[in-house]
# Entry
Amino acid sequence: MDLDDTPEQVAHRAKVRAWLEENKAQAPVLTGPDALTEEAEIVSARRAWQGKLAEAGLAGVTWPKEYGGQGLGPIEQVICNQEIARTGVPGILDAIGVGMLGPTIIAHGSDEQKARYLGPMLHGDEVWCQLFSEPAAGSDLAAVQARARQTEDGSWRLSGQKVWTTNAQFSSYGLLLARTDADVPKHKGLTMFIVPMDAPGVTVRGLRQISGEAEFNEVFFDDVELAADAVVGGVGNGWGTALTTLMFERVTIGLGGEGLGYNSVRFAKGIAADEHARRDPEVRRQLGEISSELLAVRFTGYRTLTALQKGQIPGPEAGLAKVTIVNGAIKAGDLIADVQGPDALSEQSEWAYMISFLPGLKSAGGTEEILRNTIGERVLGLPPEPRLDKGIPFSELRSKEGAAA
Amino acid sequence: MNLALSDEQEFLREAARGTLSRVKTLEAAREALDGEAGALPDLWPAACEAGWPGLLIDEAHGGAGLDAFDAMLVLGECGRVLAGVPLLGHLPATAILADAPRVADYLPALASGERRAAYLPSQPPSDVEPRWTVDPLSGMERAPLPTGSEPNANAEVKLSGRYAFVPDAPGAGALVGVALLDTPDRGTGGTPVGVVVMADADGVQIEPVRRYDATRSLAHVTLTNAPATVLDAPVESLAGAWHLAQALIAAESIGSVETALEMSVAYAKERHTFGRPIGSYQAVKHSLTEVLRQQENGRSLLYYAGWARNGAPAEFPLAASAARSVAGRALDYAARTMISVHGGIGATWEHDAPLFFRRAQLSRRLLGGTAGATDRVAGELIAQADAA
# Structure
C-alpha cells in the first residue's frame, strides 16, 4: 500500500511540472487584483490556454493518440490535474467536453465525426455543452421530450427545450438527447445528436442562480434543422450512448472533488482566524466531523484511482463521494457563517458565493435522492421501486400518469 | 498509487475470518450478557496460533514485523463477529515496548503470546489540552496521568494514580502506558515517560468492570506506589500508541458496520410490506445507502491511517483521529439503522442487533471517546490552517 508514483509516473510528473513552470506566465489570471473580469475576455483567454495545455499533452491525456490525446491512463491525467492545481493556474475551460462528451464520441461516434470534432474540442477551438436535462426530465432522464423528426431527405427537425446547460452561451456544439420515436417504451425511442449551437432556431438564455450569476442556461430549439450525419451511435440507441456519458461523469466527479476547492484545510482557515471559535467545543465538533468526511473523500479518490489503474471501472458508489462533498461543504458554509456572522454573507466574502452555489450543486450530476436509489439498487442489491412506465410506449405515459394520480 | 490490499493482506484477512468462524462469537456475546460464567470463549490461544500478538514486533524478536494496517485488518475481522480478542489492549502496548531497547528481551514472549500486555490509554496533549491525560472514572473532565518520583539507576520508579476503563487489562501480565515523573523541568508539572508495570506487582490493583457490552474486557487499573520500569521509548512512540489505539478501534468498528449492513440489507430484501420488499422503499433504501456511505468513508480513512503511520508520521494523529471519528459515528448509525430496519424484533434479545448496538454504545465512550477523536481532528486542522 502506498501513495507513491511509479518511476514512469515520477518522470511524467517532472515533465508536466517543468512545462508548467516554463509556461505559467501565459496562463489567464482569474483571481486577485489583475484578474480578468469580462466573460468574453475570460473565455477567449481560457480557450487559448486550453489549446496550450492540449498541445503540451496536459489535457485529454486518456484520449487515444490518433485524436490528439496521449493514450495514457487516468493516473497520468490526475497527475496533470494535480500539477496544474499546484502551480495555481486554471485547468481547461471545456472539462465537460474533454472529460465526458469527447469520450462519448470516441466510444460511439463515426470515423467522420471523430475526425471532424475531437481535435477542435480538445484544443478549445470549439467548446461543447451537454444537452440532456429538461424541465420535466432530470432524475428520470429517459423522459426527455425534445423531439427530432426525420424528413424525407434524411435530415432531422428538432424542437424542444433543454435546461441547466453549463457553457451553452459560448459553446459551438452540443451533444443532445432527443426523442425520435414516441411509440415505443421511453428508453428505446431516444437518439443522440450533435447540434451546432449557431443553427437557426437555437436560443440560449441565461438562468440566474441564487448567487445572482448565470452560470448555466436554458436552451430552446425551434424547428432546428440537423443533417442526417448528426446522429451519434445510431437512431434509437440514445439511451446507451447517454449512459456512456454518465459513466464518464461519475469518473470525473469521483476524481474531481478537491478540484471544487471544498477541502478541510480551507474550511479550517475560515474558523482558525477567530480566537473564540477555534477553542469552542461545539464549533470544533462540527469542524472535526465535516473535515473527517472530506478527508475520507480524498482517500476514496485514491481508491478509485487504484481501481482505474487495475483496469476496473468505478461503479455508482463513486457518486457517494459527491454526496459527502456537497453535504460537507454545505455544513462547512453554515458553520463558518455562524462563526463569522453576517460578514460571511457579504458580496466580498469568499463564503457567500459558495453558500449560494451549493444548494444547486446538490442536484447537479444526479440529485442526491436518485444517487441513493441507484447505489441502493446497484451496489447493495436492494429491489427497485415498482415502476409505472415499464414497457409502455412513451406516447401513452402521460395518460397513465394522470390515471395514477 | 496503490490503495489496495496486497495478496499477503488478503490472505491475512481471510485467515482471520476463518479462525474466528470456528467460534460462535455472537451466541457467546448474548450468553455472556445473561451472566453465564465462562460464556465468553478464550480466543487468545487461537490468536497466538495465528501470530496476531506479534504483528507489530519485528522478526528479530519473534514477531511478524507487519504494520498498523495489517493489525487493522485483523481487528476489522474481530469487529465483524464481535469477537473479544484482547488485541486492542495488547497491540498498542507492544508498539511502545518495541521502541524501548531497555526491554527488548521481553519482546519474544509478547510476540508469541506467551505473555500478554495491555495498553494503559494515555492521551497526548492537544491544542486545547496542554496535559497528558487519561480517561476519567466518570464525567467530562479528563484525569491527570499517574505520577512517580525520579527513577533510580536501574530506571525503576514507584507510581501512583489511576487509568480508568483499560481495555483487556484483566488477565494481562504487563501494563504499558505513560506516567508523569517528578523531574526538574520547565515547569510543566513533570516529564511524560513510557512505563511498564507488572500486573502481579505490589500496589497494582486491577478491578475488572463490565459495562453494557459483555464482549469487551475492561478494568480500572489503580497504582499505589507500584514498582514500574521507565521505558526508553521516544515520546513520539508514546503518542503514537494512543493514535494506533484509535486506528485499531476504528478498524474494529468498521468491521461491525459491515455485518450490521449485510444483515440489514438481507432482511430488507426478504421482508415484505404492502406487497413489496421493504428495501424497495426509498426511506429504507436511503438509510441503508447512508450506512454504506459512512462505512466507505471510514474504510478510506483506515487506508489513510494505515498508510500514514509509516508513510507520513506527521499526519498519523490526524489520520487515526479522523478514522476513529467517522468509524465511530458509522457504527452508531449502522446499529440504530439495523434496529429500525428490522422493526420491533430488532430491539429484542431474540436478535443480534442489540449486540451491535451495545458494542456501538460502549465503543463510542472508550479510549477518549469518538468525540475526543473528532476534537483532535479539529485541532490538527486548525494547526494546518495556521501553518498554511
User: Anything to note?
Assistant: The CA atoms of residues 94 and 120 of chain A lie 11 Å apart. The mean pLDDT of chain A is 92. DSSP finds twelve helices and eight strands in chain A.
